[in-house]
Amino acid sequence: MKRILVITPTFAPRPCGVSHYADTLMKYWPEANVSVVNLVRFGAEEAKAYSGRDDIYQFSNALSFARLLRQFQDADIILQYAARGYSRFGCPLWMPVVLENHLRRRPDVKLIAVIHEMWLPLPVFSKYFLPETIGRMTIERVVKLAHGIFVPTPGHADVLKTRVPSASIAIAPVGSNIVPPHAPGPWSARDRGDLVVFGMGFQRFLTAEMFGDYLARWHQNGVLQRLHVVGPRDDKWSIEEERILRKVLPESALILHGALEPAQISDLLFRCGFALSCQTRDNLFKSGSFMAFASHGCVIVSKVGGEMAPYSYLVHPDQVGVVSIEALSDKSVNIVQWYNVTIDWADTARRMFNILSNHKKGTS
């Protein structure tokens, strides 16, 4: 049986968008006779207990990572790379070194690298300049090693091309982290006074910070009846997020759901009229929560604008309460159609499968 090593920072039940991406991708793998072994930096025992699987292994440093690669030395590798998931400072220099040594010993093994995060181009006087520079060098080494490179956004591809011009890079936008069980109904039948914020703590904090004044105004104008906040709480950003929201909204208008099961989130996204997104233009394509809003037909409120899809299907916060129901219904339909055309998990899995069937390095 063919074996594939999938490397991620952690695994369910710990919240991690990269791990969810990897797990969803493998569900669409075109080869039935394949064994998936997960290597994680954190939470292996917790993941085993949660999933009932025993093929999840944890590494803590270069030595244990190399040991696991030798244990499964005949397996091809899919590395889901998000630097801070493997190193506190975002520069796991040891990772490409271990991978390079392993591939040198086993030239028959293929490596696919999915680069989820880029480095920050900081000035030399920034205290983060050195770790970000080392992080950039680490990504460059991984890209040069890989037989196939995938990134979630065109902007990521452009940045990588400036550093590794010879690399052939494929773009594969992140799909919804909550897969809808069916097509959305008409937007006009939704609770149009219900808005939803969904994601991890830091993302929700940024959303609250960006839209705080708008939320107060919408509630005063009667546009906003209830704000639903969905996602796991943490000890830092959730506190800051809730501080902002309690300042601008009364308790009766604020529903803090915490972490919900996927089916419950899907039901809520189908019911709410609007969803708030704090993502930048390029980051829309790597946001699982944005894609969840789009796949469920929410009208997405965002400061990102433009004439091309999907930007033209978004609503600027200044236009909430102004745009007609007919226009909002059209945006809901259009964003779902855009998502269905743009996101294809099976196609991404098939492209990766084809690369692993090809020995030529650097082709996507």
Account of the 3D structure:
The chain has 13 helices and twelve strands. The protein has 364 residues and is of the alpha/beta class. The chain has two domains: 2-173 and 344-356, Glycogen Phosphorylase B (Rossmann fold), CATH 3.40.50; 187-341, Glycogen Phosphorylase B (Rossmann fold). A seven-stranded parallel β-sheet has the order 3-2-1-4-5-6-7, sandwiched between helices. A five-stranded parallel β-sheet has the order 10-9-8-11-12.
Please render the helix and strand layout as text.
Elements: E1 2-8, H1 17-27, E2 34-40, H2 44-51, E3 56-58, H3 62-71, E4 76-81, H4 83-86, H5 94-105, E5 111-115, H6 129-145, E6 148-151, H7 154-163, E7 169-171, E8 191-198, H8 201-221, E9 226-230, H9 237-248, E10 254-258, H10 262-271, E11 272-276, H11 288-295, E12 299-301, H12 325-342, H13 345-356
> In CATH terms, what is the architecture of the largest domain?
3-Layer(aba) Sandwich
Multimerization state? single chain
Mean pLDDT: 92
Instruction: List the total number of helices.
Output: 13
N- to C-terminal distance: 25 Å
The arrangement of helices and strands along the chain is EHEHEHEHHEHEHEEHEHEHEHEHH
- How are the strands ordered across the major sheet? 3-2-1-4-5-6-7
Largest sheet: 7 strands, parallel
CATH superfamily of the largest domain: Glycogen Phosphorylase B
Percent range for helical residues? Answer: 40-55%
So what's the CATH class of the largest domain? Alpha Beta
Number of domains: 2
Find the structural class using helix and strand composition: alpha/beta
Proportion in β-strands: 15-25%
CATH topology name of the largest domain: Rossmann fold
Shape: globular
What's the β-strand tally? 12
Q: What ranges have pLDDT less than 50 throughout 5 or more consecutive residues?
A: 360-364
